Amino acid sequence: MLAAQPRTDVEARSETDTIVVTDLVKRYKSAELNAVDGISFTVRAGELFALLGPNGAGKTTTISILTTTLAPTSGTAVIGGHDLASDPNGVRRAVGIIFQKPSLDLNLTAEENVRLHAILYGLFPYRPFFTLMPITYRDRVRELAGILGIEGEMFKPVKTFSGGMKRKLEIVRSLMHRPRVLFLDEPTAGLDAPSRRALWDYLRAVRAETRATVFLTTHYLDEAEDADRICILDKGKIVAEGSPAGVKRDLTHEYLVVDAADRDALRRELAARGVTYRETPLFEIPLDRQGAHALLKSIDTPLTTVRTVAPSLEDAYIKVLARS
């Protein structure tokens, strides 16, 4: 009997980590700098992972590599247990993709685009008409089209669609095969507020039901607030990583905003008590060492304004980029 071969570190990690990226590099010809510069990170099964950064930071290059549409210069990646280099077909079967730019056939109807995708993925046998497709296919199309509010447009030519309608159709198409990993590259760009909310409600339900992993790039930082973990890129390098709360805690601080009718008296009292503050023009007092309640009890000057401010992910994001 042959002895069992010891598992590699990557194989062991891929049991709990849906995405394992190690020392990934991408340099374009004639470029002076790497577009992606030796980044490493993992994404655990069922996570919502957000890759953030300004334009040109390397987000789209990274997601293009991980979805097999762009070859890396060096480094390794394992997606859903499939090695990017040795099993790209396995990677493609495990993922669903919504790219920034639509990749639809404008001469087909919306449903024909979805049907072609489903047939190419081997989900259903080819049938020339929607009515001849299996009931499971028809039900799935109706379910997803209803979620995005385009059930009435599924049999219209895509060339008549607006940019937002094309984005909704791409979302329907990408979810047809119930992917293990869903890559979303600016998925809600061009969507109105109700459609954005409907999409995220559906994605939350998908994650709860299937433990699908969602890999997101977005310029809407409010979408990243709900991520399990975020990774911020700048100039191809990782400059911050962790939970949104952790990144905010490391880079920003909650503060108390107060004001008084007698501002001179408040100024003198804060100085006498050794309380650090800044005027913007209200008085902002960091809450690093004490709670808001204890601080307010210590102030005798009558106050006209009192509120606490918890910094947003956007505040932390701006500080990360300024620091890098």
Quick synopsis:
By secondary structure, this protein is α/β, with parallel strands linked by helices. It has helices at residues 9-13, 59-66, 88-94, 110-120, 135-148, 163-175, 193-210, 221-224, 244-251, 263-272, 292-298, 313-323; strands spanning 17-26, 36-44, 48-52, 74-79, 82-83, 95-98, 181-185, 213-217, 229-234, 237-242, 255-259, 278-279, 283-286, 305-309. Helix 5 crosses helix 6 (163-175) and helix 9 (244-251) packs across helix 12.
- How many domain modules? 2
H-E string: HEEEHEEHEHHHEHEHEEHEHEEHEH
Reported CATH architecture of the largest domain = 3-Layer(aba) Sandwich
User: What name does CATH use for the topology of the largest domain?
Assistant: Rossmann fold
Terminal CA distance: 55 Å
Report the helical percentage.
25-40%
Question: Would you identify the regions where 5 or more consecutive residues have pLDDT less than 50?
Answer: 1-7, 10-14
Number of helical elements: 12
**Could you tell me the mean pLDDT?**
87
Could you name the CATH class of the largest domain? Alpha Beta
